[in-house]
Give the backbone structure.
Amino acid sequence: MRIIVSLLIAVLIAGCSTHIRRTEGVQLDANATWVLLPLVNRTATPQAGLRAAAITEAVLYQHGVKQVVSYTDNGDDGVLFEGSSAQSREKMQQWASKQSGRYLVSGVVHEWRYKTGVDGEPAVGVMIEVREMPSGKIVYSGTGARAGWARQSLSETGQRVIDKILAPVVD
């Protein structure tokens, strides 16, 4: 009986775990200015990249970053798949090159949805990279994915993934 209970607990814990891969041993300066681009949306979910970028900004502040400069574009040419066209990426890169930050944060959202089925669990997959400015050298890269529980929100699941990706970098 104990074995069955232990196995059930292990399955439940694994079902809500966050899977993270990242560059190890990197510590970045929280006092520096961080420049944040919208994450490229490679999902069918409208504005997933913008949502993930907003969460990324909040997570950076939560972990002690003093100043984040975020890209904002009031145009409506990339609402569905923001940041994924060559034209919008070029526009963002031009904007970023004019900023006086030390780090440039960008990435890709490759899953941001509720799974279909009875429970409709939230599922999130994100890749985030940090580059030194102006050289463009990648100093940190992390990717993470999580499938949450049926009553969990997509934003909460996204926040957990992004937090686990970024926490070791600035804490």
User: Anything to note?
Assistant: The domain at 19-73+83-167 is CATH 3.40.50.10610 (Rossmann fold). DSSP finds four helices and seven strands in the chain. The radius of gyration is 17 Å. The longest strand covers residues 103-114.
